Amino acid sequence: MDCLENPHVFKKSMAVFEYTDSISKSIYEFKYYNKREFGKVFASELVLRLEDEIRKFDPDVIVPVPISNERRKFRGFNQAEILAKNMAKDLNIPYDENLIYRVKNTIPMKKLSNTNRIKNLENAFQVSRNVVRYNKVIVVDDIYTTGATLDAITKELKRFKDLEVVGIVICVGQGF
């Protein structure tokens, strides 16, 4: 519904679950209780349910939404990397964890309004020069709420090349 009501710079975003209490709990355990094995299960479900759409898009690469170095040190891993890496392997599509960098330690967006999410992500990402190799990019994350993260990454990618970006997430929450 968000994509119908709000303009975005990415081509499309897809999810396999709605953000319910049970999915919320699973993602929370995945991210904050070191349940990395959940990433393989979620990635398998993403591939199972979205493979046809992914193949139609015919991506050149799958990339994760990066987290800040501070968050990586605290958590020990990036959940989006686990998802993206497993999806790329299962789909036999190249994976590039170095295409997008988070250069700003943003505050958690859970309780921010849509406007504040956009401000929070201003200048948060940088893209390596490898972007010129790609025409179609899949960006993987855990939750889609307002599309602010995917928009910020797409804008940064498009600064270097006019390309198509599709987002893939575990679940979609209620946007603002």
Can you describe this structure?
The chain is globular, with a radius of gyration of 15 Å. Strand 5, helix 7 (148-158) and strand 6 form a beta-alpha-beta unit. By secondary structure, it is of the alpha/beta class. It is built from seven helices and six strands, in the order H-E-H-H-E-H-H-E-H-E-E-H-E. It starts with a helix and ends with a strand.
Low-pLDDT residue spans:
none
Proportion of β residues? Answer: 15-25%
* Cross-sheet strand order for the largest sheet: 1-6-5-2
Give the tally of β-strands: 6
Largest sheet: 4 strands, parallel
Q: Strands, helices and their partners?
A:
Elements: H1 2-5, E1 12-18, H2 21-32, H3 37-57, E2 61-64, H4 69-75, H5 79-91, E3 100-102, H6 114-121, E4 125-127, E5 136-144, H7 148-158, E6 164-172
Parallel strand pairs: 1-6, 2-5, 5-6
Antiparallel strand pairs: 3-4
Task: Write a compact overview of the structure shown.
The termini are close together. A four-stranded parallel sheet has the order 1-6-5-2, with helices on both faces.
What brief labels describe this structure?
176 residues; four-stranded parallel sheet; two-stranded antiparallel ribbon
